[in-house]
Write the C-alpha cells for this entry.
Amino acid sequence: MESLLVRICIEAATESAAAVEKWRRQKRTLERMPSHLSEALLRHLLQRRLLFPSLLEVFKYSIEEIDLRGESCVDAEWMAYLGAFQYLRSMILADCHRINNSALWNITGMTNLKEVDLSRCSKITDAGIGHLLSVPALEKLCISETGVTADGVAALASLTNLLILDLGGLPVTDSAMSSLQALTKLQHLDLWGSEVSNEGAVLLKMFPSLSFLNLAWTSVTNLPNLSSLAYLNMSNCTIRSLFEGVGHKARMKEVMLSGAAITDVSEAFRYVETSRLHFLDLSYSSHQSFSFLRSMNALTDLNLSDSALTDESVEHIACIGTNIRYLNLSNTKVSSDGIGALFGHVPNLKTLLLSGTPIDDTAVSYISMMPSLKVINLSRTNVKGLIHQEGDSPHDVSSFSALKNLSHLEKLELEEVNITDAALFPLMNLDKLIYLSLRSVSLTDASLYHISSAPKLIHLGVRDAVLTDGGLDSFIPPPAMEILDIRGCWLLTKDVILRFCHNHPQVDVRHELAEALDKRNFHYSSPSRGTMRTSQQKHKQGKLSVSPHRSDDIFLDQRLRYTREELLALQFSSAAFSTSTHYQGN
Amino acid sequence: MKKEDTVKLISAEGFEFVIDKKAAMVSQTIRNMLTSPGSFAETEHGEVTFPEINTTILEKICQYFYWSLQYASGKETEFHIEPELTLELMMAANYLHT
C-alpha cells in the first residue's frame, strides 16, 4: 500500500532509538502528517520496540486509529497519553493485560472515539464500564472475556449508537438482555458462552437491524424469527427450532452449528430460508439425516467433518454440488463409493478435505476428474498411491499419476498414509503444486530427490521419513522453496542440517535439531513477537553485556531431554510461576 | 541533453532542479502532470513547482528518482536517508506517489 520511498523513510526513522531522537522534536511536521503515514510510523515503532509512553505525545494530533493488541507493556501511563489523542476513532487494546479500570478512566470524554476493543483485558470490571459510558459516540465495543458482570452489561444500554457489541464469555443474563433493548441500532451481537436462555432469545426480536448473532455455548434451544438476520452461530447448543413464528423469514447467508445437538434436523431447518445460504458448518453433529441439504442450492462452503455422514447421504451433496467450492468431509465414514457419487456433480469444487476417511486409491481416480480442485487433503486414509493390477502384470500402477489432470492443484496433504517412494514419482509432474506435505516412515531419500523437480513448490513436508545425511546433502531445493519440514527424520545429524541451512539460506528448515540452531542465531529484527520480547529483555540488560549463564547449551531443544509427562509438568510450573510474578507486579 | 527530455522541478524556496524526464516519471503525480491531456503549464514548459517541498527534500527526492531507476534495473544498493529528513521526505513521497 505504501510506496517504496515511504517504506524506506519509515525504516530509516525507526532504525534505532537515536534515529527517533533526531526527528521527535519536529513537532509541526508531525502535527500535519496525514494519519495513514503517522499510523504506519507508529506501527513500526511498536514492532521495533521503540515506542514508549511519552513518545506517544508527538502523535497526538495525527493518529485516528491505534492497534495495541497483545502489548503487555500498555498500562495506565500509556492510556494517559492516548486519552489526549484528539482525533482518535478506533482504539484496540485486546489482550493488553495491564489495562485496568483506572487506566480506562483516561478515555472519558474522547468525543471522536467510535471503536473500543478491550477483549480479554481481565482486569476490566463493571467500574470500567462506567468510564466507557461517557463516550456517547461509541459504535463498536468488544468486552469479551473481561471481568464485567451482568450489571455492567445492563449499564451499556445508554450507548445507543452501538452497532457492534461483543459480549462473548460474559455472564449476560436474560434480565441484562432486556435492559439492552434500548440499543435499537445494533447489527452485530456476540453472546457466546453467556447465561442467556430461551426467554432472553425472545428479546432479540427487539433489534430490528440485527444481522449477526452468536449464541454458541448457550442454553438457547428455540430461536425466534429474526427477520434481519444473515449470520448465525449456535455451535455447541441444543437446537429444537430456528425462526419459528410469523412474519418475513430471515435470508440466511452463513450458519455455524458445529457440535450442536439438533433434535430433529429437518424440523429445525423447516423455517430457515436457505435460498441465499452459502456457508454451512455442521461439523461434530450427530444427526443421521442429510436430506435437508437438498434445498440449499446456493451453498459454496460446506463443512460436515466429524459428522455421521455416510456414503448413502452423499447424494444429497451431489444434488446441490454446482456451486460448492469448499467441502470438508474429514473424519466421516465416506468411502471411495461416496466420492464416486460426488464426481461429475461438483464442477466448481476447489477444496476437498477427506482426512481420516476410509477412502482408498479408487477415490483418487474420481478426485482427479474434479476439474477445479486446488486443495486436497488425503491424510490418514487408506490411500496407498498404487493400484494393484489384475492378472499377471508384474507392476502396480500409480494412482497419483491421474492427478496430473488437475491443472489447478496447489496443495496436497498426504500425511500418515502408507505410501512408498515409487507411488510419489508422478507428483513431480504437478507443475502448479506449491504445498506438499508427506509423513510416512516408509519414505526415503528417493522421495526427496523426485520432489526436487517440482518447479513451484514453496512448502515441502517430509516428516518421520528415513532421510539420510547423504540424501539431504544432495537435495537441491526447488527455486521457490521457503519451508522444508523434516521433523521426525531421526537419522539426520546436526552438522548436515546446519550445512543445508547455510547453503540454502532462503529455506526455513523445520527439524528438532534446526530449531535449536534457530534460537541460537536469532537477531532482533525478527518479526515474531516471542523473539522480540526476548530481545527487549536483552536490551534491558544493556546492549553489550552478555549475561554469564547465556551459554549455547541452554538453547538445546528440551524435548530431546524430557519425556512428554515431564514437559507438561514443567509447562504447568512455569505458568504458575509467571502468574504469581504477574500479580506481584501489580 | 535535449530540452524535451528534461523537466525542471522548483522547490518552495525557488531552487530549480533539472532532471531527466524519465527519472521524474518515477513519481506517479509528476507523470500525471506531464502527460495529462490539455495544455497545463506543466505539460507545456516541462516545469513543476512544489510550494510545499523545501530544497533539501526536493534534492533528496531527485536523488531517489535516479536511485529508483537503478534499483529497477537490478542494481541493489541502499538508499540512505538521514533520520532528520525522514518525516518531511515521507510526506513528500506520499504526495508524489513515489
User: Anything to note?
Assistant: Confidence is low (pLDDT under 50) at residues 519-561, 574-586 of chain A.
